[in-house]
Amino acid sequence: MTVYQASATAPVNIATLKYWGKRDKTLNLPTNSSISVTLSQDDLRTLTTASCSADFEQDQLWLNGALESLSSERTQACLKDLRTLRKGVEHKDASLPKLSEYKLHIVSENNFPTAAGLASSAAGFAALVFSIAKLYQLPQDLSEISKIARKGSGSACRSLFGGYVAWEMGESPDGEDSKAVEVAPLEHWPNMKALILVVSDDKKDVPSTSGMQSTVATSDLFNHRINELVPQRFEEMKSAILKKDFPTFAELTMKDSNSFHAVCLDSFPPIFYLNDTSKKIIKLIHKINEIEGKTIVAYTYDAGPNAVLYYEAENEDKILSGLKPYFENIQGFKQPQTVTSFDFKSFIPEITGVSKIIATKIGEGPKETSISLINESGLPK
Ligand code: DP6
Question: Which chain positions lie within coiled-coil regions (predicted)?
Answer without folding.
Answer: none
